[in-house]
Amino acid sequence: MIPAAPTSLQQPPHARWQTLWREAIRDPRELLTLLGLNAIASSISEAAARQFPLRVPRGFVARMRPGDPHDPLLRQVLPVLDEDRVAPGFGLDAVGDIAARRGSGVIHKYNGRALLIATGSCAVHCRYCFRRHYPYAEDSAAANGWRDAVALIAADPSIHEVILSGGDPLSLADHKLAELSDALRGLPHLRRLRLHTRLPVVLPERVDAGLLAWLEQLPWPVTVVIHANHAREFDPTVDAAMARLRRAGTTLLNQAVLLRGVNDDVETLADLCERGFAAGVLPYYLHQLDRVAGAAHFEVEDATALALHAALHARLPGYLVPRLVREIPGQPGKTPLGKF
Ligand SMILES: *Cc1c(COP(=O)(O)O)cnc(C)c1O
Ligand code: SF4
């Protein structure tokens, strides 16, 4: 008789969100078939899909409009021929992150806060992502149990806030997150923790009991900066995830990217800000696109961006108007473009 493996050697059971993660769509043609859009298969770029593969959770696909080739959610994830066009000024390290690397996955650009590349993985691959060419494999903070990254933060008492970013930090299993927060817990100069994550939007099942238990025992105030670019990214499952995050005591903010063909009109931007607020999320930043190779077709001219921002200001309460910003390498923070 073969003895059963001791429990300690068995893999921990996977959480439901991890199953949903694995079931994400990765084949552009399968995505188009699901949406009844085989007719636009000729717009797919194999080269772009090789450089940065399609990945999108099925729950997010369910929010796309079948039969609409211009769907704003689809446009954010489908690798298309436009990406192959070489555009002057669009490069591999659009925001100077490689120069700001301190090693061990720590990027320290701004006073008081350090950003930690917690992982290279994301549940969704956004075509405009400024990190789509980032050398993650060379530089992740999770290496050797976070020790080097935490040592860098420990050695700099000017760092009051750690921002978990990536990739998407919530793609890490709960026990990895706990390992990191336990390592940070002893640092007297840490006052705040922040998460930059798109998972509560694209895979809201990630906000499960295990994650909430982790959040609730953290010793610092926690801000969760989500990332949604269009009101239709919210649905009842996202609302429920936001409500759970709020009950866990976190502050919820949204950062969006201004994207041609996705949200570059005032109606769409106002809807996004109002829809987010209905889910308990305040607008934070509206980013001008980082000029990363392959994303030029998403760019909105500054003059248009400023006009949109002014129109938003004229129509919404001040607290629902995000700051229009651009990241300029070498600046002490994101650079405001708008007057408000
Ligand atoms: C955007 C960014 C931050 C956060 O900036 P805030 O203005 O505090 O939101 C921190 N570090 C890096 C490297 C960044 O790119
Ligand atoms: S979730 Fe964020 S980091 Fe990941 S691909 Fe999208 S924009 Fe990039």
CATH superfamily of the largest domain: Aldolase class I
Bound molecules: pyridoxal-5'-phosphate, iron/sulfur cluster
Helix and strand content put the structural class at alpha/beta
How many DSSP-defined strands? 9
Structural domain tally: 2
- Our measurement of the CA-to-CA distance between the termini, rounded to an integer number of angstroms, reads 74 Å
Beta content comes to: 5-15%
CATH class categorisation of the largest domain? Alpha Beta
Separate helix tally: 13
The helix content, as a percent range, equals 25-40%
Would you identify the regions where 5 or more consecutive residues have pLDDT less than 50?
A: 1-10
Overall average pLDDT: 93
Summarize the biggest pleated sheet: 9 strands, mixed
Evaluate the radius of gyration. Answer: 20 Å
Strand and helix order: HHHHHHEEHEHEHHEHEHEHEE
Shape: globular
Spatial strand sequence of the major β-sheet: 1-2-3-4-5-6-7-8-9
What name does the CATH topology of the largest domain carry?
TIM Barrel
Ordered list of secondary-structure elements with their pairings:
Blueprint: H1 16-22, H2 28-34, H3 46-51, H4 58-61, H5 72-77, H6 97-100, E1 106-110, E2 113-117, H7 147-154, E3 161-165, H8 174-184, E4 192-196, H9 199-202, H10 209-216, E5 222-226, H11 236-247, E6 251-257, H12 266-278, E7 282-287, H13 302-315, E8 323-326, E9 335-336
Parallel strand pairs: 2-3, 3-4, 4-5, 5-6, 6-7, 7-8
Antiparallel strand pairs: 1-2, 8-9
The structure holds pyridoxal-5'-phosphate and iron/sulfur cluster.
